[in-house]
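hey can u run this one w/ S-adenosylmethionine bound, need the structure tokens asap thx
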Amino acid sequence: MASAISSSFFPRSAHLSGFEVITNPVWAMLRIGEVPGKGRGLFAARDIKAGEVVLREQPLLLYPQQSTAAAFCSYCLRAFNSLGSAAEAVVPCGNCGRVGFCSATCAAAAAADPGSHCAAVCALLSACNMAGLSDEQQTALQFLARCCNLRLAAATGQAAAAARMAALAALAAPPPLSQHLAQQQHQQGSAVQAESSISSTMVVQELLGRLRHAVAAVGAPPEAAPTLEETLELLRKEGANGYGIMAPSAPDGERRIRGTAIYSQASLINHECLPSLARFDCFDGTPVAGAGATAATAGAHTAVEFRALHDVPAGEELTQSYFPLPWPLADRRQRCQEDYGFTCTCPRCQEEATWSEAGSEDWETDEDAGMEDAAAAEQAHGSGCQAPDHHHHEHPHQPPPLQQEDGGGAAEGPVAEGMDAAYINLFLLKFVCPAEGCYGTMAPPAPPGPADHYECNMCGRWRTEAEFMAELEATH
Ligand SMILES: C[S@@+](CC[C@H](N)C(=O)[O-])C[C@H]1O[C@@H](n2cnc3c(N)ncnc32)[C@H](O)[C@@H]1O
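ok here u go:
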């Protein structure tokens, strides 16, 4: 088996043309294009209506957050406490017994999936010494163990595993932290070395050492483990493309992450601080039971869905926000740099950069823990609908009126030229969930949903256009 493993962790055939991985039936609405300074992006191939689902996709990889893994299905991440009396049917992992599945269907689906908690991944994880590692580091090993096993499966001729490795390879990876910090420091005229990049490499070295030990312990060929460079690249891809999937709110209101999902097509969507899309998911959706339950239905509720917040004309780039919309400029800049390796130059950032500090405090609620939780849920951040992105509705048609002087016309197409404080505030009032501490995004329902309604992708709250207008009146 060892001889079948290619010398490179990623298949050589993998390259950056996203067209090869497109299988989504709604793809006719979308096209991939290069965006100067951003890499690839998704564009509207035709006029898109507010509320339309532009993309719906199953994950390429789905794995639990180590600290909460025992409370969620190790195949589909469904919360055991969402099952009601069916929770009695939870199937413990037959190998480690530490985690379980929400149904026999999920247990069987995981057993047959080299990228899930199958026997081989379970053995690798059980052989990994997790002592002294943070939750984040242990979760990184969940991801890396799945990658190792997918690679092994691809080497034994499993075409689906090879396709998944190719899709992983095609994901964008931001430059190494050292590179973009150095670039930032250069721009700021600082000669200070980026210490954090060194410690980060040391941490990855430590993780890789444990992974290699586990690979040996389970009798897999040493080449199954990635090199240090490949591991660093895998983790950068994971960081820039993984969507954090939120757990249901705890009784005390705390929201934690249940796991991470990586989607290949959704990973093509770039960030903008006033985006055109919102992400919805429904990880605790009603399970298909009885004879209809199959491996396919077991994971059906793990799909992510992106809906248009407003009308988008053909040719315009479709964007999402990688973190909650109300975040202040400084936090957005920091997150973009540190987690995704870019400086956001969107019209909102340009406009807010001109504001005085006092003027930018309107939406500054970053010390609010709920906002941080919501941030974790947003993309990659990792990432998503999670409610995060389990995102989901609005007053149809366009963004809020941009320039009253042109007759109150809604924004159409790029808004850069009309972006001002009034537009930004109106956009936030309209599309940020009004529920206290939620910070989700309000998007119109997918047709044929009720017109003039919006639905929050985090808490599921609904608001009508009339209610929005009344709230707007009340704030003035
Ligand atoms: C989830 S991927 C988005 C798709 C990516 N552009 C590609 O080519 O596959 C995230 C990465 O895209 C780039 N990116 C996303 N939004 C950007 C923006 N507003 N400006 C510059 N780069 C951006 C960054 O490199 C980021 O790490």
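Residues 400 and 426 are 6 Å apart (CA to CA). anyway lmk if its weird
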